[in-house]
Amino acid sequence: MADMNITRRNLLVAGGLGMLPVGSSANGQPVASTPHRGTGVLEADVVIVGGGMAGVCAAVAAARCGVSVILVQDRAVLGGNASSEVRMHCVGADMSGGRRNTDCRESGIMEELRLEDAVWNPQRSASMWDLLLYDIVRKESNIRLLLDTHCYGVRMADARRIESIETRCSTSEETFTIRGKVFVDASGDGFLGATAGAEFRMGRESRSEYGESMAPEKADKLTLGSTLLFITRPHDKPMPFKAPSWIRKFPNCEDLPHRSHGSWEYGYWWVEWGGELNTITDNARIRDELAAAALGVWDHIKNSGKHPQSENWALEWFGFLPGKRESRRFMGEHVLTQQEVQRGEVFEDGVAFGGWPIDLHPPDGIYSKEKPALQIDVPLYNIPLRCLYSRNIANLFFAGRNISASHVAFGSTRVMATGGVMGQAVGTAAAMCVQGKVLPSALARDGIAELQQLLLKHDAYIIGASNSDSSDLARKADVRASSETPNGAAALVINGVHRGVGSTTNRWISDPAQPLPQWIELRFGGPTRIGEVHLVFDTGLNRPLTLSHSDHYTSRMIKSAQPETVRDYDLQVLDGESVRTVAEVRGNYQRKRIHRFDATTASGLRLVVKSTNGDKSARVFEIRAYA
Asked: Contact 516/609 with Cβ under 8 angstroms?
């Protein structure tokens, strides 16, 4: 009979499972470890490193302009700090609804994403938001998405131009050299740009360098810290919490000065630390300390006796990836400053806008006795293209928290919705550089007007800019409507501005006393060839709208189709007295709709609004027509 003294190792081999220690063969002899690894060379017009909100918007914008894109993301999901790994909500120029009765929410791709989330994710699932971002990227045939893929090296064509990057996928062990014409660093920490030799800074400038009153007297290496968030939920019975031995203790509420913690479902942005360290190289230490602090806060709520109403509450989710606020900031041809933000500078080369307060935090974070944030309100301001490309690496753009801004100005530009509109601007600019065979600096010098017009066409907002597209046939049309209000004249749909600004609504509003359907009509001066129509509807840009796990913040939003938005409509082409419907749309909830059809000769266009998502008036910001 065969020897039955079989070890566990021999059993696994005998069973055909092949589970052997690395470096060993079946007969115990050492062998070389040769993991399977694919290698190769990839090429794209635009290569983007970083799949946060800035990177996603940049990739989608560039792809929609018709160029090829590779998007490299080092995590398994897109979204960065907005993803399910961190779960911070996207805030921006609307100051979370603080600018009442003003249309200041970001439009373009950011608005498209927020509206999708409002309709299809009313349950506020963080993973559904991940899926939404993944879906918008997957739907673009010009994008190749590489998830779980790290950029670990850069090859230069010469001292001023990137030729390719080196990447490795941590889950498949594939390595790729990725060649591109234009590169975008949307990684937050700026590894791509820094490795390529792009000039950057970390820390705070001195007060004298830019004359900024909010800067420290002397320059230093201090930054804003990072945060770990957590989510809790109430249950129908007591839910004890046993704290780990290594947490930080906060026995009394006074140990958390100026840090409100009376609401527990979503905590807390002020659990912040790491600004006195290097937020890149010390990230693991920062994570561990934040875990101790965050659980210490929850232990205080549950076990200090100061919050007995928390008895039935329990942790549902705890973040292990720090939400990072600040690290490298690149140097562009212009550095945005405190004064420019505070006076609402417009800039001739403005391509995106901001408006979040200058929001600076003490570097020692949760352990500081100071207030956790100093926020100074600012007006809306433009962000110039010169802040979005490197001054010494010729084919490098950047977008997000790593743009060319002083530490103080960064306190406003760093938030994710502002990063998203910068991403759309950079993606569009990168596509134009590829198509025009020019570098970013040349585009800023010679092509800024064309870039601004293309961004407006794609529903971006730039303060002071209006539609002057000579190809837009609607601009010279005569406009009339079935009804209108005194502040919502039909002719406003071709005035070139597609949001309310000040007291001007810049939209057609039908008379609410007149029942739907209502129509608006454009008549051309003669027979005109038309094959494409752009529509921009009202989606309530005066209200906050984003995915948030804060019940209080969410209570101020409408988590469904926005009531002002046109839901059902027909688009008709007019030819004398004949009418032909070229599009019938039912169930719309998006702001920007583009309709393409076989080009036809027409004397006019008519939009018939059959119903809205709740409002009594039809509301339309803009109609464009192209051959």
From this structure: yes
Give pLDDT tens digits for 180-229. 999 999 999 999 999 999 999 999 999 999 999 999 999 999 999 999 99
At 97, which amino acid appears? Answer: G
Which residues 6+ apart lie within 8 Å of 158 measured at CB? none
State the first-to-last Cα distance of the chain, in angstroms, to the nearest integer.
87
Asked whether the bond before 251 is cis by omega within 30 degrees of 0, the reply is: no
Strands 230-234 and 313-318: antiparallel
Output the pLDDT for position 37.
57
Where do runs of H (alpha helix) occur along 543-597?
Answer: 551-554
Which residue is it, tokens 């600096």?
441
Q: What is the pLDDT of residues 29-60, one digit of tens each?
A: 544 434 445 689 999 999 999 999 999 999 99
Backbone angles phi, psi at 529, to 5 degrees: -80, 125
Q: Read off the pLDDT band of 25 (50, 70, 90).
A: very low
Spell out a b/e string for 450-488, using b for 16 or more CB atoms within 10 Å of the CB, else e.
ebbbbbbbbbbbbbebebebeebbbbebebebbbbbeeb
Amino acid 206 reads S
The values of phi and psi at residue 92, to 5°, are -165, -145
Cα–Cα distances (Å) from 134 to 129, 205, 309, 411, in that order, read 9, 38, 39, 29
Inform me whether the pLDDT recorded for 10 exceeds 70: no
Contact 514, 609 (CB under 8 A): no
